[in-house]
Design a protein that fits this description.
Elements (H helix, E strand, L loop, with lengths): L6 H21 L3 H33 L3 H24 L5 H32 L2 H17 L14 H20 L6
Helix pairs in contact: 1-2, 1-4, 1-5, 2-3, 2-5, 3-4
Amino acid sequence: MGHGGDVVRELTADHDEVRDFFARLATEKDPGRCREIADQLTIELVRHSVAEEQYLYPAVREHLDGGDLIADKEIADHSRVEEMLKQLEELDPAGAGFTACVNDLRTEVLAHIKDEEENLFPTLQHNCPQEALDDLGDRIRRAKKLAPTRPHPGSPSTPPANKLLGPGLGLVDRARDLISGRGKGS
């Protein structure tokens, strides 16, 4: 969850973890293990998305020409993924619907990752001072520690509301995870 380095290194390391979860889901046959891996994937994607929405996208708006359009597109991508994660959470991992949802989610998430890594991150590195990138990395790591671990499609995706509600939702989610044992299997 916390890898160190500037914002690009931090988020790229998260992307690598997400790719690993998808690879594991593609080969796992046991429905119980599939649920555990899907829960870990969900936790990572939600924390990552919340942190990006709280800190990365405001920086994109500030530092990049056309930053508002870029940030709005990224947030729309996150909204679609969050809806898919909510659906995945409710599906039986032994059913065909689960596999189909994972495949759709993989397609959506990997396209988003590719776009960020090939377009957004290099542009941000070119237009943002290294000190600001380092500071964003620190902020992202702190945000992920407090972020929700479950999808909340109806919650705000932009500051200041997401910064106010996120930690409270995160506390509730982590309490639910502790009681249920969710997120401990992978």
